[in-house]
Design a protein that fits this description.
The protein has 7 helices and 5 strands, in the order βαββααβαβααα. The protein has about 180 residues and is of the alpha/beta class. The protein has one domain: Rossmann fold (3-Layer(aba) Sandwich), CATH 3.40.50. The longest helix has 20 residues.
Length: about 180
């Protein structure tokens, strides 16, 4: 008898980063597969409670405001609890070029603010996530690599790996670092 294992993936990111496009591509690439007596079924979500909550926080803040969110609020705690239920959380980086990501200065600022808020919220709540970059097949490849292993659910949440750039949350700096690494291939 084959057992079915549901693997859930949350795609988070600022507006225009290609969440829906990546979800559609992954739906095509990640068919129901079987491993021994275990069949994998994939569920991809682009509209999570955490994403909606942070978008509302940004909409109600001024452009000069950092849109800090009360991490002790019941609403935030519920959104984080729901986010932790996903097997994989993928954050789409700010590396897309037009027409996928609008390039007006205001849109760039809003995208950057959302990216920073998402990273900070996930890191403070100790929700493991991976940032996905690239265009087309490269982006799909990174997403596939990120979900290639299904983490075992344990009673205690896994600690996210943190290094210096995770603390500053400067998407421009991260984009420069990634661009330099890709040029040196």
């Amino acid at each position: 008898m084959t057992m079915v294992k549901l693997v859930s993936i949350a795609l988070l990111g600022a507006a225009g980063t290609g969440k829906k496009t990546l979800a559609e591509a992954l739906t095509q690439v990640l068919p129901t597969t079987s491993i021994a007596a275990l069949a994998l079924r994939w569920q991809i979500t682009t509209d999570t409670p955490l994403q909606r909550l942070l978008e509302q926080a940004l909409a109600s803040s001024t452009q000069s405001d950092n849109a800090d969110i009360d991490t002790k609020s019941t609403e935030f705690q519920k959104a984080i609890a729901q986010q932790r239920r996903f097997d994989h959380t993928l954050l789409l980086g700010l590396d897309l070029t037009p027409p996928a990501c609008p390039t007006s200065p205001q849109n760039n600022v809003e995208c950057s603010r959302m990216d920073t808020l998402l990273r900070r919220s996930l890191a403070q709540a100790e929700v493991p996530f991976q940032v996905i970059y690239g265009l087309g097949n490269e982006r799909i490849g990174q997403a596939l690599a990120a979900v290639s292993t299904t983490p075992a659910k344990t009673s205690s949440p896994r600690k996210p790996w943190v290094w210096a750039c995770d603390k500053c949350s400067d998407p421009g700096c991260e984009h420069r670092l990634l661009s330099d690494l890709l040029l040196n291939r």
